[in-house]
Amino acid sequence: MGRLCQGYDGQTKQIVRSADSVGSNLAEGHGRYSYQDNQRFVKIALGFIKRSKTLVET
Known about the structure:
By secondary structure, the protein is an all-alpha fold. Helix 1 runs antiparallel to helix 2. The chain is elongated, with a radius of gyration of 13 Å. The protein starts with 9 loop residues before the first helix and ends with a helix.
């Protein structure tokens, strides 16, 4: 993640990290064995989507 954010200001780094967390949580949830575990990670990813959207809009 460090190289991905090099040269960006603080706000942009937050957006990049938040957006990157979406994919990470979906991938981790996909590897879970139960439907409930998978859904937990999907909900976390949705939270990061909302956060990313808010950061972009401000």
